[in-house]
Automatic annotation (TrEMBL):
Entry's Gene Ontology molecular function annotations: phosphorelay sensor kinase activity
Classification via PROSITE patterns: HAMP
Keywords assigned by UniProt, alphabetized: Kinase, Membrane, Phosphoprotein, Transferase, Transmembrane, Transmembrane helix, Two-component regulatory system
Chain ranges passing through the membrane: 133-156
Catalytic activity, as annotated: ATP + protein L-histidine = ADP + protein N-phospho-L-histidine
Name listed for the protein in its UniProt record: histidine kinase
One cellular component (GO) term of this entry: plasma membrane
Highest classification ranks of the organism: Bacteria, Pseudomonadati, Pseudomonadota, Gammaproteobacteria, Lysobacterales
Gene3D superfamilies in alphabetical order: 1.10.287.130, 6.10.340.10
EC number: 2.7.13.3
Length: 401
């Protein structure tokens, strides 16, 4: 049984439109009920006034023995209580005016006059037909008013939310690097202005935090380079000691490689963490790859480098060399005898490791993915705008921007 998909919440504009539509429906329904009630009351008033007037007129004539004949027209009929033609169901009605239970168009008025109880019946079928037409008109008016309210709600919400969209565009336009913003200057001094001021304050705090971070990195850079230089110097002195035993010389070489690797990681970390814009320039591709190979293959005398690059690259030289050297070092790390090929192809740089013994590479785990596997190198690639992909375990492709 598949899990139910989460419901997407309504947008602010959709909620405003829904509320406007419901408000239009409510007001329209109240107006419709009021109109129909007035129409129904008007029908009763008309029937009551007509029947009351007829009863008073004929009752007065009959009481004074004046010649009078109760009306018997298609619309209006009058009866004495003892008239045999009086419908039996009307004879039991109490005084007053009411609708015939069998027909809403017929109203029956029972009146006690000086000449006795008189019953008048009036047919208001044309008024009932007008009421039915009024019902249809009211329903159409209610539907139209509801749709109009929804459309007006959608349009007015778009107008009302225009400053919000402008604020959102201003936030989207903010750069990745923290910098002060003045979004509150472009909006009104209300709740929206309060939101803009909150964003401006947050940007200011980001700038302060970034300044503290950069100051820390600068201090850490100076403080870490000094002991690292001492370690490298001691490692070089130990390597120059010809009286050391072979086992000691191997340990000294490993110490030097570790110090060199730490130095490269430190440089990569500082290059990736700096906030200042990169200094791009045009340099020879062959020289950049040669410098990177020299750094990567230090301490790997069994691995040679082959450079195949004609043309130039527009990039930040220092960061580019660190990135290419780090990737080449990853290829060279598990090998002792091989050839590192660095080639510039259209739109990309390819690093390829060719082992002297093809069977020796079969034991190396294969990979085919994006990224460098190192957070520092990934950060450098992102700053340069390059995309790194491993094509197996012996080749890396760097897509240039």
């Amino acid at each position: 049984m598949s899990a139910a998909l989460p419901r997407r919440p309504l947008s602010l504009r959709q909620r405003f439109t829904l509320l406007a539509t419901l408000l239009g429906l409510l007001l329209g329904a109240l107006a419709a009920v009021t109109l129909l009630a007035v129409a129904e009351r008007y029908e009763y008033v008309v029937a009551n006034e007509i029947l009351q007037g007829q009863a008073e007129d004929y009752g007065l004539r009959l009481a004074n023995h004046m010649p009078a004949q109760l009306p018997r027209t298609q619309r209006l009929r009058g009866y004495r209580l003892d008239d045999p033609t009086l419908p039996r169901n009307y004879a039991g009605f109490p005084p007053g005016v009411r609708e015939d239970p069998g027909s809403e168009a017929v109203h029956v008025g029972v009146f006690d006059t000086a000449a006795g109880r008189l019953v008048f019946v009036i047919d208001l079928g044309d008024i009932e037909a007008t009421e039915r037409l009024l019902h249809l008109l009211v329903a159409a008016m209610l539907l139209s008013a509801t749709m109009l309210a929804g459309w007006l709600g959608w349009w007015l919400s778009g107008v009302a939310l225009k400053p919000v969209r402008a604020l959102a565009e201003g936030v989207d336009a903010l750069p990745v690097q923290p910098q002060p913003s003045r979004l509150a200057d472009a909006v009104s001094d209300d709740d929206l202005g309060r939101l803009a001021r909150a964003i401006d304050g947050y940007q200011t705090r980001l700038v302060d935090a970034d300044a503290h971070e950069q100051a820390f990195l600068a201090d850490a850079s100076h403080e870490l380079r000094t002991p690292l230089a001492v370690i490298q110097g001691v490692a070089e002195v130990l390597l120059d000691d010809d009286s050391a035993a072979p086992a000691q010389r191997a340990r000294h070489a490993r110490l030097q490689r570790g110090a060199s690797e730490m130095h490269r990681l430190l440089e990569a970390m500082l290059a990736a963490a700096r906030r200042r814009p990169l200094q791009f320039e045009t340099i020879a591709a062959a020289q950049l790859l040669r410098d990177a190979a020299e750094i990567a293959l230090a301490g790997k005398p069994g691995i040679t480098a082959s450079i195949d690059a004609d043309g130039e690259l527009h990039t930040a030289p220092r960061e580019a060399v660190l990135l290419v050297a780090g990737l080449a070092r990853k290829l060279a790390q598990p090998r002792t005898d091989a050839t590192l090929q660095l080639a510039l192809e259209p739109g990309r740089i390819v690093l390829r490791m060719t082992p002297e013994d093809p069977d020796a590479d079969a034991a190396t785990p294969m990979r085919a993915d994006t990224g460098t596997g190192s957070a520092l190198l990934d950060r450098l690639a992102q700053r340069l705008g390059w995309q790194v992909a491993f094509d197996g375990s012996a080749q890396v492709s760097i897509r240039l921007r």
